[in-house]
Design brief:
Blueprint (H helix, E strand, L loop, with lengths): L2 H4 L8 E5 L4 H12 L3 E6 L2 H14 L4 E6 L5 H14 L5 E4 L17 H16 L1 H5 L4 E6 L22 H22 L5 E6 L14 H13 L6 H4 L1 H8 L10 E3 L2 E3 L8 H15 L5
Parallel strand pairs: 1-2, 1-4, 2-3, 4-5, 5-6, 6-7
Antiparallel strand pairs: 7-8
Helix pairs in contact: 4-5, 5-7, 7-11
Length: 294
Amino acid sequence: MTMATRSAFMMKKPTCLITGATSGIGKAAAFALAGRGCQMVLLGRSAEKLGRTIAEIRKKENDADVHPYVCDFSLIQDVRDLASKMRKAHDRIDVLINNAGARFLHHGLTREGMELTLVTNHLGHFVLTLSLMEALERSDGARIINVASGAHFGGTGVIENIVSEKGYDGRLQYANSKLANVLFTYALAEKLLGRRVAVNAVDPGGVATNFARNNGWFPWLRHRLAYLRSGSLLTPEQGAETIVYLAESGDAEGVSGKYFRNKKEQKSSALSYDRETQERLWAASVAWSGIGLV
């Protein structure tokens, strides 16, 4: 990517925050943006993995400016505590990449009584994003990037906090969580009109990572083989390309409320554009978290 397309935005050493930064496309995006001179704020569940990731980045980029934060995105209080620390440590945030996510084929609740897919894939990022809005608005044109998935096309409506194992469908709940990423993107873009903060969603494609290995080897291998057979399995670096593009490109300046794949705007599912569904998700998210947009 040329300096011309990167524009003046990257010349200011932007502060870039990435959730789920210790593996997969989150880690690949962290390496790429650190190599472009960004100040990196990396979030992960494991202090050990964060330490290894930062050591690897600094080995490759000797002058890398990297800051680690440990956070469990399945716990809303953890996210709120993290946001409080970040507001004190970082006056502004220029790029927020909401990447952390998981697929849970079997039902599970956090100690806060929230279903794991809902809170890990959507609600944690809803809370983080709104909690950091002041820091984002201090940037001269901040960019929020929500990592969604083509799986959102299988979503059927607003994701629910399913507290009973009975009737839980892990694949549908995952699809609805990815639909929530897109619905949240469009609703937030509308609410941020005129506020110099852009928000877009990204489908990274089928990426060869450890994603979904928590469900066992067979589901993980089946997921990977499906993309291999179609010839569309990507490396983490390839999967991160559109994320990095939206984070740094001058072409993305001022672009908001869009869905991207392969560095191009694409159409998302018909349901994702439904304003009533967007607002129902927003209202439910506020009710679950106790946090709204000021």
